[in-house]
Amino acid sequence: MTAAAQRRAAADAPARRPLPVRVTWLLVALLGLGLFGAASIVFGVRAVTWPDVVGGLSGASDTIAEAAVLKRVPRTILAMLVGAALGLAGAVMQGVTRNPLADPGILGVTTGASLAVVTGIAFFGLSAPTTVTWVAIGGAAAAAVLVYTVGSLGRGGATPLKLALAGAASSAAFSSLISAVLLPRIDALTQFRFWQVGGVGGAEPGRILQVLPFLLVGAVVCVLSARGMNSLALGDDVAAGLGAHVGRTRLVAAAGAILLCGAATAVAGPIGFVGLAVPHLCRLLVGLDHRWLLPASAVAGAALLTGADVIGRLVARPAEVDVGIITAIVGAPIFIWIVRRQKVRAL
């Protein structure tokens, strides 16, 4: 092992966690996810009782309260799926780029997916859910390639700062293009102005089933890339010396993350900061091993987004605050904290 790799291993040693600690924190995250899921079904604009919850979960809709419970179930499931997808994608992006600022929103991936969806619907009349999902995935992939290419220009290659700046500039450009597409079309603007904020309020079982295969495939690809990302954390030269296929590992893991981002954006709109905050929190709890970090990020992301959705329903009753606004309020201070850290150059 080279001297640089030894120094990195020594620096990372305090971040390693014993197996019982990792298992405990993962169980805590699962418990938190269960509690937030129960709260998502119980709490909302309309108060429900325990008999209403039992009746709604059994499929009854005789009363307004039971119908409300029945409607909250797919919303809760969608929040969990989207949160898990964004948390997992954020951890993979940070591992692949070794960039602590990597996030589907900050790097412009979700905004690129949004631009592709809005353009496809406004100009080509796309309406089939599966087609919209594929278009969102294509937009996310194109945005990721553009940001990484721009961030790699010049001396030093794709540094965290250059990637963050390229992502911010691209995201701003994509947002302007989205506005340019929507403003002359009042019907489209009315239809998508809430979707652009990011939310799970319009969840439907059929829509969830349409996007579920994309999320599952993306998650499997990312999890199977965990061992390779552990090698990438040592640096490209060391990883290659250990027998890892650096380029292939990056490409496969990034493809899984883009699949997750595109599918999540297609079904819930662009939701930011989940993929930024969750992996950093999970590294503090379960350590740097991606074999543990990725599942923990998925569970914690699901819990965070589900909890944010519950908060959005309660803080402005009888109105609702979209979950994308809540996650931005939570994630912005974390982003500032990460930027101000001394060791922000690379993971």
Automatic annotation (TrEMBL):
The alphabetized UniProt keywords are: Cell membrane, Membrane, Transmembrane, Transmembrane helix, Transport
Do you know which Pfam families this protein is assigned to? FecCD (PF01032)
Q: How does it sit in the membrane?
A: Multi-pass membrane protein
CDD domains assigned to the protein according to its UniProt record, in alphabetical order: TM_ABC_iron-siderophores_like
Please, which domain of life does this record's source organism belong to?
Bacteria
Is Membrane tagged as a keyword?
Answer: yes
Cell compartment(s), UniProt = Cell membrane
For molecular function, the Gene Ontology terms on record are: transmembrane transporter activity
Entry-linked Gene3D superfamilies: ABC transporter involved in vitamin B12 uptake, BtuC
Q: Which GO terms describe its cellular component?
A: plasma membrane
Q: Which residues cross the membrane?
A: 23-45, 76-93, 105-126, 132-151, 163-186, 206-226, 251-272, 292-311, 323-340
Signal peptide range: none
Q: Which GO terms describe its biological process?
A: siderophore-iron import into cell
| Family membership noted in the UniProt record | Belongs to the binding-protein-dependent transport system permease family. FecCD subfamily.
Protein's UniProt name: Iron complex transport system permease protein
Natural source organism: Amnibacterium kyonggiense
The lineage is: Bacteria, Bacillati, Actinomycetota, Actinomycetes, Micrococcales
